[in-house]
Design a protein that fits this description.
2 copies of one chain form a homodimer. The first copy, chain A, is an all-alpha fold. Chain A is 77% helix and 1% strand. Chain A contains 15 helices and 2 strands. In chain A, strand 1 and strand 2 form a beta hairpin. The longest helix of chain A has 28 residues. Chain A is globular. The N and C termini of chain A lie far apart (39 Å). The model of chain A has no long low-confidence stretch (mean pLDDT 92). At the A-B interface, helix 3, helix 5 and helix 6 of A face helix 3, helix 5 and helix 6 of B.
Chain lengths: 304, 304
Amino acid sequence: MADAVGDFLTGGKRLRPGFCFWGHLGAGGSDTPEIVVAAAALELFQAAAIIHDDVMDGSDTRRGKPALHKQLAAEHGERFGTGAAILLGDLTLCWSEEMLVGSGLLNPDAREVFDTMRAELMAGQYLDLLESVSSNGTVESALRVARYKSAKYTIVEPLHLGATTAGAGRDVLEAYSSYGLPLGIAFQLRDDLLGVFGDPSVTGKPAGDDLREGKRTVLVATALERSTPAQADLVHRRLGDPELDADGVAELRDVLVTTGAVDEVEKLIASSTEEALAALDERIADEARDVLAALALEATRRET
Amino acid sequence: MADAVGDFLTGGKRLRPGFCFWGHLGAGGSDTPEIVVAAAALELFQAAAIIHDDVMDGSDTRRGKPALHKQLAAEHGERFGTGAAILLGDLTLCWSEEMLVGSGLLNPDAREVFDTMRAELMAGQYLDLLESVSSNGTVESALRVARYKSAKYTIVEPLHLGATTAGAGRDVLEAYSSYGLPLGIAFQLRDDLLGVFGDPSVTGKPAGDDLREGKRTVLVATALERSTPAQADLVHRRLGDPELDADGVAELRDVLVTTGAVDEVEKLIASSTEEALAALDERIADEARDVLAALALEATRRET
C-alpha cells in the first residue's frame, strides 16, 4: 500500500506545499525541517483527494499515467481497483494528518486552519458534484465552486497553515486572503481554459477532456449566457458526452470562442491576478513576497 | 452533508465506543464528558469505514435501510451517489479525528494507538479485498483478516485507546490484548455464521447475503478443507454468485453443516471466548471487568 502511494506522489506540482512553505517564511518563520514536513503533509492530503476524485469521476489518466484505480484494476479487476483506491485514499488522508501532527508545528490556530481546509475541500467537491448533475450551471455557482475548491483549498489555506505555524498575526492572514482568493479564481480559470484548449503533452490529459466530462466551469457558464439558441442547444447536447470526438470538441471550442467567453475569461484572469499582486505589501516578508508574486504569474500565465 | 452523516449514525451497536469507554474505566479512568467524546469519535470513524465499505462492496443495504450511496443515488443518480458517499466518508474520517483531538485526551500514547488503529483497519480491508479476488482462501488467511479487521480494530485498539487516555501502564494494555484478540476472532466467527444463517430481521441483511457476496470467511475456508470434491465444486461454482436464490443458499448452507464446518466454528467461538474471559483479572478495575465479561458473552452468543 505504501509503495502504491509513494509511486503516485512522484508527479504533481507541489503547489500547496509551496504556498505553505512560503506562507511560513512570509510570516516571519524560518526554513526548518519541521516546516518542510508540515508542507509536505499537504501533498499527501492532495494525493488522497485526487485518488478519490479520480474514482468519483471515473477518470482514466492522471499526470499522464493511468489513474491509480486503473493501475490497480489492471492487477485484479475493476472491483479491486475501485475498492483498493478508496482504501489507499483513506490511508493517505490519515497519513497526511499524522505527518502534520508529527511536524510538531500544529498549534491550535494551525489546527483550526487544517480542519477548515479539509472540510471546505470536501464541501467544495460535493458542490461540484451537485453542480454536475443539476442543470443550472450559472457563472455565479461555478465561481462558488472555484472559490472553495481552488482559491481556499489550493492557495489561501496552505498560506494560512504556513502563517499560523509561524505564529502570524491577523494582518498577515488578511494579506494572504486578499492575495489568495482572487489568485485562486484566476488559477482555476486558467485550468478551465487548459482543460478545453490545452496541449495534451502539457496537461497530461486528452484534448478537450473537460468537455467530455461535462465540467460546468465559469468558461462554459459564460458561453451559455452569451449563446444564441442554436449555440446553447449544441452545448446542451454535446457537453458531457463521453463519446465526443475531435469534431465535437472543435464545435464546442468554436462556441466558447465566438460567444466571447474565452476573451471574457482571459480578462477576468488578468484582473484577478492584478488584484492578487496588489495585496503583496509590507505585511509580508520581502523574500516570500517576491516568490509569491512569481508564483502568481507562473500559475496564471497563458501557455505559449 | 452533516444531516446525511447524522442520519446514518442513528443505527449501529456502538461497540467500539463501548470498548473505549470501559477500557478507560478499567484502567482507572473516570466517567467524564471527555472520555464520552473520545469514545464517540470512534463511532464516527466506524461510520466513515462502513460508508466506504458499502461503496466498495456495492452493498444495497446497511442496518436494515438502503446504504448511504444508494440513498444518495436515489436523489441524483448512481454517479452522484457513489461520489457523494466517498466524500461523506472522507469528511466523517476527518471529523472523527477532529472530535478525538477535541476531547483533549489524545496524549502521545493515545495518538499512537489511534494512528495504528486507522492504518491497521485499512490494511485489514485491503487484505480482505485481495482475499476476495485471489482464489486461495485458506483458514489461515481468513483468520489473518479477522485479526486485523475485527480483533484489533473493533476490540483491542478501542480498549487501548481508552486505557492510554487514562494513562494506563503496560500490564493493563497486555490484559486488554489477551482479552481482545481471541474475543475479536470469536466475534468475527459469530458474524460469519450470522451472515450465512442469520435471521434477516435481526441482521438487517437478506438471508445468505455473505454467500452472494462471496466472502472468504473462516467458515467457508474450513468447509472447503473438509469438502468432498463434489462439495468443493459446488462451493466454487455458487459462492459469490450475485444471482444466488433461496435454493442455492440452502445448498451452500448444507455443505457448511455436513462438512462439520459449522460445528468446528462454534467450537472455536467457545474456546476463544473462554480464553478472552480468562484474561479479565485483577489488572482491570472491578466494574469494568464485569462489563467486559458481559460484552464478551453478548457479542458471541448463539442467536436463539
